[in-house]
Design brief:
This protein has about 350 residues and is an all-alpha fold. Among the domains are: about 50 residues, no CATH class; about 120 residues, Serine Threonine Protein Phosphatase 5, Tetratricopeptide repeat (Alpha Horseshoe), CATH 1.25.40. The chain is about 75% helix and about 0% strand. The protein has 17 helices and two strands. A two-stranded antiparallel ribbon has the order 1-2. The N terminus is likely disordered.
Amino acid sequence: MKISLLPLLLLLVLLGGCGSGAEGGAVVDADAANAGQRETAERMARFMAGGQFDQIVAELGPRAEVMDLDAEDWLWLAKARLGQNEVPKAVSVLRKGLEAFPADLEQSLVLSDVYQRLNLVSKALEILDDAAAEGAESSAYQLSLGVALGRQNRLKDATLAFQRAADLGADLGDVEYNLGLIRAAGGDHEGALGNFEAALSYDLSNIHAKREKAHTLLRLTVPGEELDAGLLPMVEEVLEVAPQDWRAWRLGAELLLLLGDPVAAQMYATRALEFSGNEATVEALYVQAARAAKKQLESEGILDPDQGSRRRGGPPIPASVRERAKAARKEAAKKQADSP
């Protein structure tokens, strides 16, 4: 007669077994717990991919109030809060998560990154120091440390951190890109150019390295010399992939001013302002471009200097520029609409 094992397993779980059966029950309980964690992780990943941040908050938020989350759940909740643009709440979640799991490196790295985005670099370094005290030593940790040190202009220390990251197996393209930023910040544009080219040799699709290579080539251009004809197309390649990259829009505005097209430069600077949240360097560039555009339009009789308005519609802005700006605005509006 065939006996089904399922009722027996259920009975062991319910009763906890007896004798050697107790150990079997513990194994089953552990397996069930692991399966539950996997199921939760898969569900959170689906919510995150679909931008359903409110679902994550609704499920994990009440458990966070009573500190009933594992390390991975704290991270999901923090990322959901960031997705909702609730940065202070994300910081609070991560701090509570680190209180519960002080050795969890991933939470430390996310919190450090948040602080750096808020320009609270000293706080970011405090978090990284705490992580080091807990034994953190990984390529991701060293990369994060190098970025923070670089932002404090501690360029030698940052360089050492990036070199340690490479020794620990970090992506060499990432290392070269970050070393390039450090060298550029220190005024070594020739060295920085070599780093950005090396980063692109590892990954031609690295849009950040491509943007910074164009930026560095611009810095290396001697005043009065003709600009490299490939710089603006390089920036446009970046914007094709990342239409909300405000640094690329800003660089495009700089190039267009130098190329004698202040009207298009003003349009690029407008997008840079929009996507940077009115970053100070972009504001200054926008004013410069707007003044140059006004002067050009007045000289061409398109803008009435007395009325301050256009008379014949102005020169056409390239269709590719208009389409990129339109696509970027639509994407930004969609993200705003998806946020609760």
